[in-house]
Design goal:
Blueprint: E1 3-7, H1 13-26, H2 37-43, H3 45-51, E2 53-59, E3 66-74, E4 88-96, H4 105-118, E5 125-130, H5 135-143, E6 147-148, E7 166-171
Helix pairs in contact: 1-2
Organism: Streptomyces liliifuscus
InterPro entries: Acyl_CoA_acyltransferase, GNAT_dom, NAT_camello-type
Pfam family, one: Acetyltransf_1
Length: about 170
């Protein structure tokens, strides 16, 4: 399967949002299912694209082209950053459709983000947050040279102690 990574087009936003939402729901990463407030954020690709770079993984060509994954790349200092500090880019909302997993789309999306970070003036590091149960993603990050940064782990919902997010970083 040949995978192409490029910027998401507006007509693909709905598909990217649904792939992202279904990945998080299907993997049990949202505590409240369809009513989870974060689900709306995952589906609102237009909002993300206005503030960051939304990249897609596509397979096929022409009329047979289809989106199989997406990621949000937040350049250094971008408004969508959760944990990035000065000089750092952030990777957010990485998701691959269930039927396309295991074929390299997730890794290709992360590689594209690292390449964008390297091309960003003043960017010295890429950071990301992940849940403890995202083992496939952890393997991708490790293969690409990311290391754990436990001192930067954080909780997006302070009242729920079991939601601690793990932080990974890659020094460029």
């Amino acid at each position: 399967m040949t995978i192409v990574i490029r910027r998401a087009r507006p007509e693909e936003y709905e598909a990217v949002g649904e792939i992202t939402a279904q990945a998080y729901l299907g993997d049990g990463l949202l505590d409240f299912g369809e009513s989870d407030e974060y689900l709306g954020e995952l589906r609102d690709v237009a909002k993300r694209a206005a503030a960051a770079d939304v990249l897609v993984a596509v397979v096929g060509t022409g009329a047979a082209e289809r989106v199989v994954g997406g990621v949000t790349f937040v350049p250094s200092g971008g408004p969508m950053a959760d944990i990035a500090r000065e000089g750092e880019a952030e990777i957010r909302m990485l998701a691959v459709a269930k039927e396309a997993r295991g074929h390299g789309a997730g890794e290709a999306l992360v590689r594209a983000c690292v390449e964008r970070a390297r091309a960003t003036d003043g960017c010295v590091r890429v950071v990301l947050s992940t849940q403890r149960t995202m083992h496939s993603a952890h393997r991708i990050y490790g293969r690409l040279g990311f290391t754990r940064a436990p001192d930067r782990d954080w909780n997006p919902i302070p009242d729920l102690d079991d939601i601690m997010l793990l932080t990974y970083e890659l020094t460029l």
